[in-house]
């Protein structure tokens, strides 16, 4: 979708609130109307615009109620600075995309050769040493495992005030442009991969609830058993809501509660 169209569509606060609500669970018109505090007719008008843009779609249950849900995974990036304005939207990258060949600078340690007060000889020597060291460290640190991926970015670049050499500044400019592009790609990959994981969890759990909330609860006890109150404190959530989620997870044999009243991952 064109970013300008998407920005216009999301410029309306009620449409943003509808999408926020639907990101937690599918809803029918009356639910949305009560949540927004606006008439069903106004809700239908907003939903129609979102449907026309293929952001929202609907299904009908056995009681002939039409439920609306978010239809696709989309990322919008907006950049505003004194030197430019830009917006772009794109589907997340495919999970099959080989990120290793695309992200040369995703982990980067740039040590500038020229700093104020250095002698020419010392600068030359340090420049070669640092360039060699930097080249050795410029390795892609994007590793995909069966259930997770870690993207680490380390950036150390001297400020323009520390260097007056135009060649050095332009090298930094080029590298940072490359890094910006790679980070955008990595964010698309992460966004898509997170959605894949949540979709899988949603299918297995079959929960008519906020699947991300369930994922947060499960992630809290992945490596260490915790009580309901400890889980609630960790994710800053209501204890009763956490207890209800844990009971649902236990029903599906995702978690168990031991004699010590601590919750653990069951599988």
UniProtKB/TrEMBL annotation:
HTH arsR-type domain mapped to chain residues: 1-88
Composition bias type Basic residues, residue spans: 128-140
Pfam families per UniProt: HTH_5 (PF01022), HTH_Cmi2_C (PF24270)
InterPro entries registered for this protein in UniProt: ArsR-like_HTH, HTH_ArsR_DNA-bd_dom, HTH_Cmi2_C, HTH_MetalResp_TranReg, WH-like_DNA-bd_sf, WH_DNA-bd_sf
Recorded superkingdom: Archaea
Compositionally skewed regions (Basic and acidic residues) per UniProt: 141-155
SMART domains membership: HTH_ARSR (SM00418)
Keywords recorded for this protein, A-Z: DNA-binding, Transcription, Transcription regulation
Region listing for Disordered, in residue ranges: 116-164
Example of a GO MF term: DNA-binding transcription factor activity
Protein name: ArsR family transcription regulator
Gene name of the record: arsR2
